[in-house]
Amino acid sequence: MIRNIAAGVQAFTSNAFLVDGDRTVLVDTGSNFDAVAQVEDAVDDLDAVIVTHTHPDHVGNLEAIKDAYDVEAFGFDTSQPGVDVAIEDGDVVTIGDDEYRALHTPGHKNDHLCFYSESADVLFAGDLVFPNGGFGRTDLEEGDRSALIESIDRVLDTVDDDLREMHVGHGTSVTTDPYHDVELASQAARMR
Q1: Residue 192 has pLDDT above 70, yes or no
Q2: Distance between CA atoms of 151 and 149, rounded to whole angstroms?
Q3: What is the mean pLDDT of residues 171-184?
Q4: What's the order of all strands across the beta sheet hosting 113-117?
Q5: Which residue ranges form the domains of the chain, and what is each CATH number?
């Protein structure tokens, strides 16, 4: 089961997806809310944290979660505060009951990762793409529009067109033809 523990939070935060199963994982921790209490309400224990990227709205609660559950945080760049274990492009990680391939997808931030499970037809897109063709900002430090376009196109080439679910860093998850939303983001990102 995948649930957004940041749903309904009024403060500035990213989504934070708790995926329970064989390996209970929190994908991003969000910020500015009591993530520990939200995890405690949902599951008995946590096995790991995986971060899509290290912007503050995605990792603001990271230390509190790590302290409460004595878990490691996995991400692309271990030189970033709080990231303990590196996930390389192409690595396979277990999230819940499924295996996900990590895709290094810079453009919004250099350490950005997406996670795709072919067997589950699920994509964790972080801040690369959003519903209805939205895409990650490139006006922040490390932002690069051409790299973002390449990353979106890489995701398009990787995921199946029958993608079932796309969980994004902000906004609602897409459960109706999410592949189309990624296609729209690819087109929209090319417009100046």
Answers
A1: no
A2: 5
A3: 97
A4: 92-95, 98-104, 113-117, 122-126, 165-168
A5: 2-190 (3.60.15.10)
